[in-house]
Amino acid sequence: MKLPGATHPNIYVRSRRAGERVLASIRKFLQERLKLKLNEQKSTVDRPWKLKFLGFSMYKRKAGEIRIRLARQSIDRVKTKIRALTARNQPIAMEERIRRLNTYLGGWIGYFALAETPSTFEEIEGWIRRRLRMCLWKQWKRVRTRYRELRALGLPEWVVHPFANARKGPWRMAHGPMNRALDNTYWQAQGLMSLTERYRRLRQAW
């Protein structure tokens, strides 16, 4: 059951009927004792996995076990922030982009490491790397530059030639051979923080 307020408290009970009873009691207490009106639009009785609380929601595993996950809105917000930090139309050095990402992501994962869904962090991390590859491709505007950079990554010539002359957009080009050449090892060498490794370390420390 979710109630309105400064922290939007949630109250968990064993059944919907119990939740409805508690909600009715709280409504009566607020209205009769405190002379406050309950916001009915923001107060509801529902399954735990259909509600969100402080950026988290819950999900039910097949065995019936309840686990914590990131709310959909939390994932959307972090992606919006990362898009701003990795906007390809901003002439920022890659070193500075990574520094800004690390600063933001360090605090973000420190809070959301409570979630029990490591696959979500793996997906976000892979998406971040693709965003950074897109920025690199945008920087390699000239075909001559693409030849030089792709060869420096150790790609074979039969890959370099069509890739350097491709007319697809940066997001499309950030996949495929670029993904294999600029993998996790490459970005860790550039100083990019690994969300998944940071997540594991935080969980192990608890």
Count of β-strands: 3
Average pLDDT for all residues: 83
Number of H- or I-type helical stretches: 10
Structural class: mainly alpha
Principal-axes geometry comes out as elongated
Cα-to-Cα separation, first versus last residue: 28 Å
Largest sheet: 3 strands, antiparallel
Radius of gyration: 24 Å
Provide key terms for this protein.
single chain, 206 residues, mainly alpha, three-stranded antiparallel beta sheet, disordered N terminus
Describe the secondary-structure layout:
Layout: H1 16-33, E1 52-53, E2 56-60, E3 66-70, H2 72-85, H3 94-112, H4 118-139, H5 143-152, H6 157-164, H7 170-173, H8 177-181, H9 184-189, H10 195-205
Antiparallel strand pairs: 1-2, 2-3
What does the model show?
The structure is a single chain. With about 210 residues, the chain is mainly α. The chain contains ten helices and three strands. The protein has helices at about 15-35, 70-85, 95-110, 120-140, 145-150, 155-165, 170-175, 175-180, 185-190, 195-205, and strands at about 50-55, 55-60, 65-70. A hairpin with a 2-residue loop joins strand 1 and strand 2. Helix 4 (about 120-140) runs antiparallel to helix 10 (about 195-205) and helix 5 packs antiparallel against helix 6. The longest helix has 22 residues, at about 120-140. It is elongated. The two termini are about 30 Å apart. The model is unreliable at about 1-5 (pLDDT under 50).
